[in-house]
Amino acid sequence: MGSAPRVADRVQHFTESVIREMTRLNNLYDSINLSQGFPDFPAPAEIKEAAIKAIRDDINQYAVTWGAPNLRRNLAEKYRWFNGMDVDPDKHITVTCGATEAMISAMLATLNPGDKFIVLQPFYENYWPDGMISGAEPIFVSLHAPDFRWDEAEMRAAFARGARAIIINNPNNPTGRVFTRAELQFLAGLCIEYNALAFTDEIYEHILYDGRQHISLATLPGMADRTITISGFSKTYSVTGWRIGYCIATEEISKAIRKVHDFLTVGAPAPLQEAGAVALKFPRAYYDQLRVDYTRRRSLCLSALRDAGFAFEPVEGAYYVMTDFSNFGMDHDVEFAHYLVKEIGVASVPGSSFYMPPDLGRHQVRFCFCKRDETLIAAGERLTQLKRTR
Ligand SMILES: Cc1ncc(COP(=O)(O)O)c(C=O)c1O
Hints:
Strand 9 and strand 10 form a beta hairpin. By secondary structure, the chain is of the alpha/beta class. The protein has helices at residues 18-28, 45-56, 69-83, 98-110, 127-134, 152-160, 181-193, 251-265, 270-279, 284-308, 333-344, 373-383, and strands at 32-33, 93-96, 116-121, 137-142, 163-169, 197-201, 227-232, 245-248, 311-312, 320-324, 346-347, 349-350, 364-368. The strands form three sheets. The chain has a seven-stranded mixed β-sheet, sandwiched between helices. The protein folds into two domains: 9-43 and 285-383, Aspartate Aminotransferase, domain 1 (Alpha-Beta Complex); 45-279, Type I PLP-dependent aspartate aminotransferase-like (Major domain) (Aspartate Aminotransferase, domain 2), CATH 3.40.640.10. Helix 4 runs parallel beside helix 5 (127-134), helix 4 crosses helix 8 (251-265) and helix 10 runs parallel beside helix 12 (373-383). 39% of the residues lie in helices and 14% in strands. The mean pLDDT is 96. Residues 37, 98-100, 124, 169, 173, 201, 203, 232, 234, 240, 245 line the site of pyridoxal-5'-phosphate.
């Protein structure tokens, strides 16, 4: 019998998530997990109660495929006061299984196989397989170390190569950058000049430091019609396992996204959408407190890393820090990350998983600090065992 191919070409070119692999190693070595970005502290009690109540009230069947009406209504209201966007809940919002599904649905709905899209690197690791799955071809534009800024000429050249879209993640994972209004205006200008779409992943929109304000790309002049704004509940409300996200786009683009979404997943979990609607009614003080808490976690984590001998740039937003570990006499990120998890007892993510070609990240590892104070303090104590070689 001939050996018929069992798997499709599109899955040949990417591996399983390195980040989830680090979580597996973390569990194997009983280490402290600063690799995968999920909180180890509880979600707000009000939304847990709301989820339980929704199940008790028998909200247990399919919701409207593109999202429960009250969730979309409350999203539109929050987008008005927080993001400054005028969103029609019936026409512009599609609720999805996390921002993850929002991104792949949006790409499948708007890009044809062979279309080019720009990805800033280091990148959030999903964007590369998202391109593979949708058949679109990435053009990588570097955020140059040490301060993770793009070169304007390189960005323009990428658009000039015929990019139909750009993915931008702001606040940024893994660099911690929050792009300035001037940087976003520059990008917007290129999107307009080259008639390109922007997928903007704003999942960390509420996790900002030192008084920074979030700017939604869609609010810049000329961008509302060409931006697909993606976000979700995972990070803002500490519920990464609930899988509730959404995207906001024009009516025409939303119709296309809703078709893909309907046949991919039908819909996000109905009772958890009810709880999401409750979360959106939290007072502004909730978001202020979130910033206060993350500022404290950032300082616990960064001071431990600095004392241990890691080099890194200021973190402006999100809850990650990309570090250079050259001070420890090792020069291979995977080897170093494995040493850290096995011998020191702290899990990180090898830098190579954020770059193409991967070797660009060989001197870096990423840590996350969405953890309880005790977890961060314990990780800091373990890191003091690292020996500097210079
Ligand atoms: C930039 C970015 N986008 C999306 C996600 C995933 O979001 P969700 O849980 O809503 O799928 C993450 C999770 O780490 C992320 O860092």
